[in-house]
Amino acid sequence: MIYQKAAFDYNDLAEKLWLISNQAYTHGSPWTKTQFLTDLQQPHTDYLIAIEANEIVGFLGFSRVVDEVEITNIAVNLTSQGKGHARQLLKALIQQEKANDVFQVFLEVRKSNERAKCLYESEKFRVLGIRKSYYQQPVEDAFIMSTKLKTETMK
């Protein structure tokens, strides 16, 4: 099941998101617990939370500005990876944001994260460019990827 951030206590949720992020990313969580909490409290951000057997197994964080969405985080805990949770979260976001008249969804992904890049490409994301030295610890370039949800922008 997929839930919105509003269904959770933000303090508890920030802790759980950090734990998942810290184990899911090869180099640890790019965000602190405090950064997750601050992001959860913002009116322009939202999170989709994947639940299995009453446990949070993954999440997708994003911000929406007018008719564009940027995915800021997507992670699935190690024991639940490979079960389709990331794809389920991505599809839920796309379906939800099409209904919200969003034109385009953006994200950044490490150049070395081939598994994630393949997932995004399978959901019609395409590489737009490269952000040099975008990631730290270790320093690495990022692919900027996007998918269009509509053929025209809002008028």
TrEMBL record:
Pfam families per the UniProt record, alphabetical: Acetyltransf_1
Keyword Acyltransferase: yes
InterPro entries assigned: AcTrfase_RimI/Ard1, Acyl_CoA_acyltransferase, GNAT_dom, YpeA/RimI_acetyltransf
Localization per Swiss-Prot or TrEMBL: Cytoplasm
Top-level EC class as recorded in UniProt: transferase
Assigned EC number: 2.3.1.266
Membership in a protein family: Belongs to the acetyltransferase family. RimI subfamily.
Name recorded for this polypeptide: [Ribosomal protein bS18]-alanine N-acetyltransferase
